[in-house]
Write a structure and sequence with these properties.
The chain has strands spanning 9-12, 29-32. By secondary structure, the protein is an all-beta fold. Bound molecules: zinc ion (2 copies).
């Protein structure tokens, strides 16, 4: 079940634009599966599908690979 060996890329959280918010755990950035692409549902604005970060393929969430 451990899938931590998968590579992720860090991208700037669209919600706070790097300032840090609850959605990015106050880091200002989030990890997503490469290639990093904006959430197709909101195009980076933030919605429930992307956890309000604006990015698709968030680490640990909505992991639909395999
Ligand atoms: Zn943020
Ligand atoms: Zn979204």
């Amino acid at each position: 079940m451990a899938k931590d060996e998968k590579k992720y890329v860090k991208v700037r959280c669209c919600h706070c634009e790097g300032a840090g918010c609850i959605y990015c755990d106050k880091t200002g950035e989030v990890e997503v599966s490469p290639p990093a692409c904006l959430c197709p549902h909101c195009e980076g604005v933030g919605c429930i599908y992307c956890g309000f970060t604006g990015w698709a393929g968030l680490k640990g969430k909505y992991d639909d690979e395999e």
